[in-house]
Amino acid sequence: MQETPLPPSSHLIWRQVRQQLTILGLVVGSICLVAYMLGVVAAGLLTQHEELRHADVALIVVPEVPSPALSDHVSDLYRRGFVREVILVGAGQSLLHAQLLTHGMPEAVVQDNASQLLASDEPLRVLVVAPAAEQLRILKQLRDNRLRVYHAPAPSQSTSFLDLILASWNYWRYVLIG
After folding, report:
1. Distance CA 121, CA 164 (A)
2. Less CB within 10 Å around the terminal CB: N or C of the chain?
């Protein structure tokens, strides 16, 4: 006569489920942490060098109060022939627009509408000047729209670790949520 195995008690099953969920949570959490830290490292590396190349247009992401160094940098890019047009976006675009005009840039060169970037049939070369917290995400967005993108951070831009953390957050939020 064979004995039939007894069914495992339900508390043992729930203990195994909890263990498996804990392991799964640790694995997913570790992957998320590694991805987030890779974003921080990528943002840090972006701020260490620039890809200064000739481009069709410069996209300038303007903070609420643009620094004089930013207007000097943008004027210098135009004077040296790196860009033919400048597009301003951001909270302080009207202030920077006025500063650039006082630097002697022609009115026709400075635009306030970024929609023309996506309207072109041929891929444009875009030189991006943006704060460190926004740069990684903006480069990704423009590359997703099939633009050839380079970056040239403002020379006096100091980057804190908090800026890098924010840059990683902005990047992954865009990649995962859109």
Report:
1. 34
2. N
The hierarchical CATH code for the domain 47-177 is 3.40.50
Q: Where are the domains of the chain?
A: 47-177
Closest CA to 63 of 36, 33, 40, 95: 95
Distance, CA of 140 to CA of 136 (rounded, Å): 6
- Maximum average pLDDT range among 6-20, 31-45, 154-168: 31-45
Which of 156 and 129 is assigned the larger pLDDT? 129
Residue 85 DSSP label: E
End-to-end CA separation in angstroms for the chain: 64
Cβ neighbours for 36, distance < 8 A, ≥ 6 positions apart: 168, 169, 172
For 83, residues 6+ apart whose C-beta sits below 8 A from its C-beta are 54, 55, 56, 57, 58, 77, 127
Task: Show the DSSP H helices in 49-79 as ranges.
Answer: 68-79
What is the distance of C-alpha 19 from the center of its chain? 38
Instruction: Give which of 169, 119, 127, 130 is closest to 153, Cα–Cα.
Output: 130
Report the DSSP beta bridge partners of residue 89: 61
| pLDDT number for residue 132 | 86
Instruction: Please return the burial class of 78, using the count of CB atoms within 10 Å of its CB with bins 0-12, 13-18 and 19+.
Output: buried
